[in-house]
From TrEMBL:
This is Carbon-nitrogen hydrolase. Belongs to the carbon-nitrogen hydrolase superfamily. NIT1/NIT2 family. It comes from the Bacteria. InterPro entries: C-N_Hydrolase, C-N_Hydrolase_sf, UPF0012_CS. Residues 1-238 form the CN hydrolase domain. The keyword Repressor does not apply. The keyword Hydrolase applies. It holds the Pfam family CN_hydrolase. Keywords: Hydrolase. GO terms for molecular function: hydrolase activity.
């Protein structure tokens, strides 16, 4: 299975429309890929909080429509990253997954909004639904950036059958060490493949970290971007998940120490 993560550069002097056109032409080079992943709020720019409300769209708006058409044209699964979704009086950080026919098969509203040097928590409403979606190649868990810090979200996805974890992000360079660790650890502890897409560039004074990754279920980074706009490409074999879970059945050895069922005396 051929996968690609598009590491988009965010520039303050580029409009949403210009960036969408640019990314669409990058996607046009990815014919033959089975799954493509894009970053978090890349069209508006994650740190352009003043543009969030004016550039928000409903889930059936032009942003989502255009990537539905792109998934169909490429005949690929496309996780088109997130955008600012408007639903009534509320705004969400919503990511969307399309199948190769261009059907919207899942949308995920970021559960853990980011509050540190970010207006996200003030402007947006958090999501409440853990998202695992069925695809032709297995079940896929969807997550967004700061979610990476919360292992229980990913473990819940695994409990729901996820074997492949997709993470759309706008993670700053100053915490790159955390980013690299979390990418590897979330894949390793859950014995899943993980594909992340991060942004690069400097936006509103923040340098974004890049280093989008494809990590295998043994925690090995099999492909990674640097700090420039690029496409991280890899070929992955999902049968590796079953194999690793068989030879090293760590997920079967869980003891529910965090649950009310846990008792110290047994
Ligand atoms: N966009 C984000 O959620 C940023 C998260 C981040 O920078 C961090 O967790 O550190």
């Amino acid at each position: 299975m051929k996968v690609a993560s598009v590491q988009v550069e965010i520039k303050d002097d580029e409009t949403k429309e210009q960036r969408i056109l640019r990314v669409e032409s990058i996607l046009d080079t990815l014919k033959g890929y089975n799954l493509i992943v894009l970053p978090e709020i890349w069209a508006t720019g994650y740190f352009s909080f003043d543009r969030y409300k004016e550039e928000s769209e409903p889930i059936d708006g032009p942003f989502v429509e255009s990537f539905s058409a792109k998934a169909k044209a490429l005949s690929a699964y496309l996780f088109c990253g997130s955008f600012v979704e408007k639903d009534g009086d509320n705004f969400y950080n919503t990511s969307v997954m399309f199948d190769p026919q261009g059907r919207r098969i899942a949308s995920y509203r970021k559960i853990h909004l980011f509050h540190y040097g970010s207006d996200e928590g003030k402007l947006l409403t958090r999501g409440h639904e853990v998202m695992v979606v069925d695809t032709d190649f297995g079940k896929v868990g969807l997550a967004t950036c700061y979610d990476l810090r919360f292992p229980e979200l990913f473990r819940r996805q695994v409990d729901l059958g996820a074997e492949l974890l997709l993470v759309t992000s706008a993670w700053p360079h100053r915490r790159l060490m955390h980013w690299n660790l979390f990418n590897q650890v979330r894949a390793l502890e859950n014995q899943c493949f993980l594909i992340s897409s991060n942004c690069v560039g400097t936006t509103r004074g923040t340098l974004l970290g890049g280093h989008s990754q494809v990590v295998d279920p043994w925690g090995v980074v099999i492909a990674s971007g640097g700090e420039q706009e690029t496409i991280v490409k890899a070929e992955i074999d999902l049968t590796q998940i079953k194999h690793i879970r068989e030879i090293f059945p760590q997920l079967k050895h869980r003891v529910l120490t965090g649950s009310s069922e846990w008792r110290e005396d047994i």
